[in-house]
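The protein record quoted in full:
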Amino acid sequence: MVKVLGHRGVRQHKGTDENSLPAFERAMIESDGVETDVVVSRDKTPFLCHETRQISIPRIYTRATSSLKRHLNRASAKLARGKRIDQMQANDVDCLTLKKGSKLPRLSALFTLAQLYPGKILDIELKGYGTAAPVIAEIRKAVAEGKITKDQVILTSFDHEALAEARKIDPDIKCGMIFSRRDMRDKPIYPWEKESTRAYAPLDEKTLTGKHAKDAKPDYFVMTARTLSVANINKIRKHYPNAKIMIWTTKKPEHDRILQKRLNDPAIVRHLDTIITDFPAKMTGMLKKRGLRP
């Protein structure tokens, strides 16, 4: 069975903020769980927000920038004053409201919600600098309180060094490496952190055999449908024969020609474990029609 996760909840639902509790609840009802992004405040409290974005002209210019303002309503954007979440205290972040009216949630609130939907997958992308330790602390707390099980959680990231850190802190946590485009290689993930050398990496032999991959011991490999190919599957299987493969897509399933092509190829689809999608209900329905879900 190919599993389905709601990308940032239900990212393109007209009445719901992405990465909000209503979006997460809708995704849990419509699919097998949620994918979300985590950053930490100045006092190391994890919040759920896709705070960074890439401004990119392929092969010419690429830089990361804060996109927090784009998610907030006008009053909260003014309140944030152009700061990133890691530049604010948790109590100040709690005061922020997203464009469609939801509050910007803490990771702990997702775990409280997940208690109502036992067994749902929680794919938490480490999006901010220095997230591994605070996130694992929140996971351990939620497990101890009986809200979730550790087996529900997958930590994913473009920051492969953060996954290695997570694995060192908790050897039993599930980890998934996300890969960039080839033209993004060595572009800094956190250019505002001057001491950081963390950079994007594509799916290739250099990345798969590198130190961070060896230390992270990934359980999952996460990529776009375009990157998913027999050749890349073989590269992964060569080094990590038991790893699972996830893809993400932001297009409506019926309009995603590359995804349709991959699902029509038995040599590819038999390796596919999970699809992360902006449209979880539609994706679930399409996979059922194809016989890829019960």
In short: The two ends are 7 Å apart (CA to CA). The longest helix spans residues 132-144.
